[in-house]
Design a protein that fits this description.
The chain is an alpha/beta fold and about 375 residues long. Helix content is about 35%, strand content about 10%.
């Protein structure tokens, strides 16, 4: 191989050290800041690789969101509370999507970061926007802890430059907001591997039969999976579908939503991926050879998340990091005070290693029949693909 390695950039901001979502919310945990702490403990970020996130402007947000909704978030931030009408109309100020100081600025900053990431990808670099990945938000409402859909706005940036975009959603939940936004765009192919919505949020959609709108039939690929899905099943499926999709759809760039709630131990997820399995999935995507924008996403176990996203950055930037966590990383992880699973057998390893034991051999009984079902998708089937 004589290919020169693509450069990569990591997008962040000191603002994320402030915390958000108030108390008693699954996202009231350090995520982006803790990831940066672990990456820096490894000495794995140069000045040239770092980009300070800018906030998306109201005008940029309006490419997807309604003016009424943008103004409702601005108004809530300015007044320090959400008006009753705005709560009803836009689903903010609820238990799910609470008011917090910065309820407009923080998601606008994450969105600006993901748009910057798209711009880096247009310049041929890989980019990682860990504060992004808010895949559930819809034009006029917050949904599922997501206020602005930075993923949609990043993909729109790529579409304006006429790129064909493959979107791969690895979050444990169905990427419904992104899928809906591009349901009828034949130049955006959305793939989502997720907990079957029969038992998991958003409790509708995301079925095998949901394959795109009338103007873009076959441009969505949904993989609804059972509880307990682990490394071997997950990777077998990804390796089965990804080359076929890339071959038929021929994307120019790939956008990956890398929520970590599919990891074993996540308090809201029901899958059993190891960090190693999760990173193998990311490596498969990078291996396609196209510029990749990775965003963050869900992930409600801060230690699992920071370890996994450190690994994502290592893969994108072409670094080989030791598995053993540097002392400063272990200290940063301990300082979180997370002990919800301290009796679990894996707990001590969370502070010793950035990886946990993969289970790459155990193929489930349901997998062969499920793969045959997947083959019914137009992009895998014998029917010719029309884009
Ligand atoms: Zn999720």
């Amino acid at each position: 191989m004589t290919t020169t390695r693509r450069k990569a950039v990591l997008i962040g901001a000191a603002h994320y050290r402030r915390g958000s979502y108030g108390r008693n919310h699954p996202l009231a945990i350090p995520r982006v800041s803790l990831t940066f702490d672990v990456i820096k403990a490894y000495g794995a970020l140069s000045d040239e690789e770092f980009r300070v996130s800018r906030a998306a402007t109201a005008r940029e947000l309006a490419r997807f969101h309604t003016r009424e909704y943008i103004q409702a978030l601005q108004r809530s931030e300015a007044f320090g509370h959400v008006r009753h009408e705005d709560r009803l109309r836009h689903a903010v100020g609820t238990l799910e999507n609470p008011y917090f100081p910065g309820v407009f600025y923080t998601p606008a900053l994450a969105t600006g970061g993901s748009i910057q990431g798209a711009e880096e990808v247009l310049a041929g670099r890989h980019a990682f926007s860990p504060a992004g990945g808010m895949h559930h938000a819809v034009p006029d409402q917050a949904r599922g802890f997501c206020y602005f859909n930075d993923v949609v706005l990043a993909i729109l940036t790529l579409r304006e430059a006429d790129r064909r975009v493959l979107y791969l959603d690895l979050d444990a939940h169905h990427g419904d907001g992104v899928e809906a936004a591009f349901w009828n765009d034949p130049a955006v192919f959305t793939v989502s591997l997720h907990m079957d919505t029969a038992y998991a949020y958003p409790f509708r959609g995301g079925g095998l039969q949901d394959q795109g709108g009338p103007q873009a039939p076959g441009s969505s690929f949904n993989v609804p999976l059972p509880k307990g899905t682990g490394d071997a099943d997950y990777l077998a499926i990804l390796r089965h579908i990804l080359p076929a999709i890339c071959g038929r759809f021929a994307p120019d760039v790939i956008v990956v939503q890398a929520g970590t709630d599919a990891l074993h131990g996540d308090p809201l997820g029901r899958f059993r991926l190891s960090t190693t399995g999760f990173l193998t999935a990311i490596a498969e995507v990078i291996g396609v050879g196209l510029p990749v924008l990775v965003t963050g996403g869900g992930g409600y176990h801060p230690l699992l998340l920071a370890r996994a996203w450190t690994g994502v950055w290592a893969l994108l930037s072409g670094r080989t990091l030791p598995a053993a966590l540097p002392d400063a990383a272990a200290q940063a992880l301990r300082a979180v005070g997370w002990d919800a699973d301290e009796d679990e057998p894996y707990y001590d390893n969370l502070f010793r290693s950035r990886l946990d034991h993969p289970d790459t051999d155990h193929i489930s009984d349901w997998l062969p029949a499920f793969m045959r079902q997947l083959d019914g998708h137009v992009v895998l089937g014998r029917t010719s693909w029309v884009s």
